[in-house]
Amino acid sequence: MLKKKEFLHYSKQYIDHTDLKCIEKVLKSDFLTTGPEVKKFEKKLSNYVGSKYAVVCSNGSVALYLACLSLNLPKGTKIIIPSITFAAAANVAKMLNFKIIFCDVESTSGLVTKNILEDTIIENKIKKGLFLPVHLNGQSVDLPEISKVCNKYGISIIEDASHALGTKIMKRQKMSKIGSCDYSKMTTFSFHPVKNITMGEGGAITTNDKTLYEKIILLRNNGIQRDPKFFLSKGAYDKNNILNPNYYEIQSIGLNFRASDLNCALGTNQLNKIEKFIIKRKKIVQRYDKKFSDLSDFLKPVKKFKFCNTSYHLYVVLIDFEKIGLTRAHIINQLKNRNIGVQVHYPPLHLQKIYGFSKKLEGSEEYYKKCLSLPLFPQLTFNDVDYVVKQVKNLIKKT
Q1: Quick one: 285 and 323 in the same domain?
Q2: Model-level pTM greater than 0.70?
């Protein structure tokens, strides 16, 4: 059996000499954290996605937490979360004492549709709640239609775009980049090493709402307010009305959710290369799709939507394991033996007992039963893709 010398991870970071150089520059500077690189990255990110504001933070989970916390929603608020997503969204909801309503997804894409969402809202009698749409694998939900449903029932939207930096929605002759918040209050991102760009670890929130932006800035840094224009007490000034330069006020209960200058310098440099990353990812996806086209009876890529110009984070195929007579565990182990790393995104959250959700969600369970993420990252060569395809085909055709 031919075996790759190097292990092909399902995803990995791309780091070059320019990334190393920018990190070295920060290490030699006066600031390692909460310095000029933070503002620089925030400005570059907001310009890239088309939002008015961006706040960088320590990771994508924290981004979700800060976004939800900033809305000051009461305990017991109903929050709709797609069952097919990472645990962070549900954990944030539990920490904030929201009532979680898991939403089903379309079984061939893993995405929530407007009809599924509206059925969920009506069934659970939700008014003035919160919805966290997930742009899964890099592909966007139909935000224009989703926002109509949410507006109809008074539900706020925070987009979870951890997979979707660089993705665009093309609808009604209008282009909207994910993160612009054209259809939502806020959008959150993750810059973990396997994402489309990396900060090492990092996250961000974008918004067009100045009040929310200022609230998140406060919460990110232990609730400490240092800007005199927001001071609530006259104790900031001496008897001559001169500001005490060391004065600050704790105006909210927050923690240290900051990102360092090291992380942000890397993020800025990575953002310079994102369009090249996107082009390469698209070419890899196209090659996979073409090479797998003769296996359509057993294996299909996730459904793609024409309104979405996708910046692919993951390459997910849906395999009919029952039809081929093999378990997913068997396929995963056999591919690992051939130095191919794969992953499953994600086990449905509604099946996790800790959340106490009892309803069956057929679309989510069908998607999970078949999904498998194959290697996708910018350094992947076409020869690598062909090798992965060949090994998958060999395993399937042995049945």
Answers
A1: yes
A2: yes
